[in-house]
Write a structure and sequence with these properties.
heterodimer, A: about 120 residues, mainly beta, seven-stranded mixed β-sheet, four-stranded antiparallel β-sheet, 11 strands, B: about 110 residues, six-stranded mixed β-sheet, three-stranded antiparallel β-sheet, about 45% strand, globular
Chain lengths: ~120, ~110
């Protein structure tokens, strides 16, 4: 059974870089898109972006090029960097497997709470 | 402001049927892209409830159903149960981008 586990720093100061990593267990990360979604306190879901095993990426334009998603196929891991952060980036960040148009986002990480505060 | 529009809240008594709407536009749902629905219980990650407009993954009760027409979609929950109290999100696509609704809080009275 496929599982994902994510980790990263939970407390940042404004202008710093958010860095999160997600590891995939139970199968190869090839053949799917792997993405990041966030949820600000009391708010809905916001799609950040995604990457496939060959490094092809798609991003939410609203993040204005602050986000970078990368993949390490040798470790079956993918990562998110967001820089520079502001208080508006405070949210729970989820990594997830996206099976595309018909299957949707079918596997979600446990979420990482990130707080940006001076 | 979310790309897809959902009502902020709906409610119903146990055993009743409720529907949650998801309004899009000609660049997302109306362009023929599939719609998925997710259930988020308090303090947990979302879980896919319906994929590909109308399909329930294994383990999702048949009480949950969905439809899509034109530029909108809807989720129906019949035989409402206390454990259905949660947030529900629709999701579709706008070209290569994934777009979500703002979420609907379902309260079971």
């Amino acid at each position: 059974q496929v599982q994902v586990q994510q980790w990263g720093a939970g407390l940042l100061k404004p202008s710093e870089t958010l860095s999160l990593t997600c590891a995939v267990y139970g199968e190869s990360s090839s053949g799917y898109y792997w993405g990041w979604i966030r949820q600000a306190p009391g708010r809905g879901l916001e799609w950040i972006g995604e990457i496939n095993h060959s490094g092809s990426t798609n991003y939410n334009p609203s993040l204005k090029s602050r986000a970078t998603i990368s993949v390490d196929t040798s470790k079956n891991q993918f990562s998110l960097r967001l820089s520079p952060v502001t208080a508006a980036d405070t949210a729970v960040y989820y990594c997830a497997r996206d099976q595309g148009f018909y299957w949707g986002i079918d596997i979600w990480g446990q979420g990482t709470k990130v707080t940006v505060s001076s | 402001q979310s790309v897809l529009t959902q009502p902020p809240s709906v409610s119903g008594a146990p055993g009743q049927r409720v529907t949650i709407s998801c309004a899009g536009s000609s660049s997302n749902i109306g362009a023929g892209y599939d719609v998925h629905w997710y259930q988020q219980l308090p303090g947990t990650a979302p879980k896919v409830l319906i994929h590909g407009n109308t399909n329930r993954p294994s383990g999702v009760p048949a009480r949950f159903s969905a439809s899509k027409s034109g530029t909108s979609a809807s989720l129906a929950i019949s035989g409402l149960q206390a454990e259905d109290e949660a947030y529900y999100y629709c999701q579709s696509y706008d070209s290569s981008l994934r777009v979500f609704g703002g979420g609907t809080k379902l309260t079971v009275l």
